C-alpha cells in the first residue's frame, strides 16, 4: 500500500484528539493521590495497551524483537525513559496549569526543542542558520517562543482576574511554568525514540505486518522505557506519602476518605488507553505521510494544542476571566499553531 498523506493527516488529528482528551477521565478520580492514579493509568498506557495492540496488529512480535539489534533496543528504551520524565512532569503541568494553558506551553516547548536539539547536539545549528530552509525553521521556533510568552501572559492575566481556582483546583502558575519547561525538553525525546526504531520497522514489515501498523513494535520498546522512569518516581512518592492502602480501597495518609475503587480503576483505564491511542494513531499517520514525513511531529503538536484548548473552554478553565485575558490566550494559541506550521514548512523546504 502506497503513502496517502491525506489519510496520514487524519490519523495525526485522531492522535491529537486522543492526547488532548486523556487527562479528562483523571478529573473524575476520587480520593486517590496523584502518583496512585498516574501509575495505574500508566500501566494501561505503557504496558498493557502497547503489547495488546502490537500482538493483535503485527506479525510475529516476539521474533521481531528477538532479531532487533541490541543497540536499537537500548536507544529506543533510553529515549523512552527520558521521554517518560517529560510525560511524568507533563501530568504535573496539567495539574497546575490546566488543560488549555498547560498543554499549550508544554507542547509548544516540545515542538521547539524537538526541532532545535538534534542540530545543536550534532553541531549543525550554525550551518542550519546559513540556509534558507534553516532560517524558516528558526523563524518557526522563534514564533513558538513568542506564542509561549503570550500564553504565559494570559496565565498571569488569569491570576489577576482572580479566577485562578476556576476549573483547575491546584492552579499554580509559577510552579506550572517551571515544570512545563522541563517537560517540553524531555518530551521531545519521544521523536528520537521512534527514529531509532527504524530497524524494528523494517523487521516487522519483513514478517508481513501491514505498513499501517509497522510502528507498533517500536512503541512496545519506547513506552517500556517511559514506564520505567514513571514507575520509579511514582513508587517513591507512594511510599513516601503512605499511599499504598489506596490501591486496595483503603484511605491513605493523604486521602480524605476511602476511594471508590471500581470507579477509579475504570477511569484510569480509559485515561491510560486514550494516552496510548495518541501514539497508535501517530505511528499510523507517520506511515502514510511518505515524503511529507517530516511534518508528522508538527502536525501532532498543533492538533493537540487545538483540541486541548477546546477542552479547556468546555471544562470552564477560563470561566470568569476577562475578555482581554481570553483574547490574549487566543492570540498565543494561534501563534503556537502557526509556529508548528512554519517549522513544518522549513523541514519541507530542506527535504527538496
UniProtKB/TrEMBL annotation:
A cellular component annotation (GO) from this entry: membrane
Transmembrane segments: 6-24, 36-56, 72-94, 101-121, 133-155, 176-195, 215-239, 260-282, 294-315, 327-349
Molecular function GO terms recorded: rhamnose transmembrane transporter activity; symporter activity
Keyword Acyltransferase: no
InterPro entries: L-rhamnose-proton_sym_RhaT
Keywords assigned by UniProt, alphabetized: Cell inner membrane, Cell membrane, Membrane, Sugar transport, Symport, Transmembrane, Transmembrane helix, Transport
Protein name: Rhamnose/proton symporter RhaT
Pfam families on file: RhaT
Domain of life of the native organism: Bacteria
Amino acid at each position: 500500500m502506497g503513502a496517502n498523506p491525506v489519510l496520514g493527516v487524519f490519523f495525526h488529528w485522531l492522535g491529537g484528539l486522543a492526547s488532548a482528551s486523556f487527562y479528562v477521565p483523571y478529573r473524575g478520580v476520587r480520593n486517590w493521590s496523584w502518583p496512585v492514579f498516574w501509575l495505574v493509568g500508566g500501566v494501561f498506557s505503557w504496558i498493557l495497551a502497547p503489547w495488546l495492540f502490537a500482538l493483535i496488529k503485527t506479525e510475529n512480535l516476539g521474533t521481531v524483537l528477538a532479531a532487533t539489534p541490541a543497540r536499537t533496543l537500548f536507544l529506543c528504551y533510553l529515549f523512552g525513559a527520558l521521554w517518560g520524565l517529560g510525560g511524568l512532569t507533563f501530568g504535573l503541568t496539567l495539574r497546575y496549569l490546566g488543560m488549555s494553558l498547560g498543554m499549550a506551553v508544554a507542547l509548544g516547548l516540545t515542538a521547539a526543542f524537538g526541532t532545535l536539539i538534534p542540530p545543536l547536539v550534532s553541531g549543525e545549528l550554525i550551518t542550519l542558520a546559513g540556509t534558507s530552509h534553516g532560517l524558516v525553521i528558526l523563524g518557526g521556533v522563534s514564533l513558538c517562543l513568542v506564542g509561549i510568552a503570550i500564553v504565559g501572559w494570559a496565565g498571569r492575566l488569569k491570576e489577576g482576574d482572580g479566577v485562578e481556582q476556576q476549573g483547575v483546583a491546584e492552579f499554580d502558575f509559577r510552579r506550572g511554568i517551571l515544570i512545563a519547561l522541563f517537560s517540553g525538553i524531555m518530551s521531545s525525546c519521544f521523536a528520537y525514540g521512534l527514529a531509532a526504531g527504524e530497524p524494528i520497522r523494517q523487521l516487522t514489515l519483513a514478517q508481513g505486518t501491514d505498513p499501517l501498523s509497522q510502528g507498533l513494535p517500536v512503541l512496545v520498546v519506547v513506552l517500556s522505557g517511559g514506564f520505567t522512569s514513571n514507575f520509579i518516581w511514582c513508587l517513591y512518592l507512594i511510599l513516601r506519602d503512605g499511599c499504598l492502602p489506596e490501591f486496595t480501597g483503603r484511605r491513605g495518609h493523604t486521602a480524605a476518605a476511602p476511594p471508590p475503587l471500581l470507579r477509579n480503576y475504570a477511569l484510569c483505564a480509559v485515561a491510560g488507553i486514550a494516552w496510548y491511542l495518541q501514539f497508535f494513531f501517530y505511528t499510523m499517520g507517520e506511515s502514510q505521510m511518505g515524503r511529507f514525513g517530516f511534518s508528522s511531529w508538527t502536525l501532532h503538536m498543533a492538533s493537540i494544542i487545538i483540541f486541548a484548548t477546546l477542552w479547556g473552554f468546555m471544562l470552564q478553565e477560563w470561566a470568569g476571566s476577562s475578555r482581554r485575558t481570553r483574547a490574549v490566550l487566543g492570540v498565543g494559541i494561534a501563534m503556537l499553531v502557526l509556529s508548528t506550521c512554519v517549522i513544518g514548512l522549513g523541514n519541507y523546504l530542506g527535504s527538496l
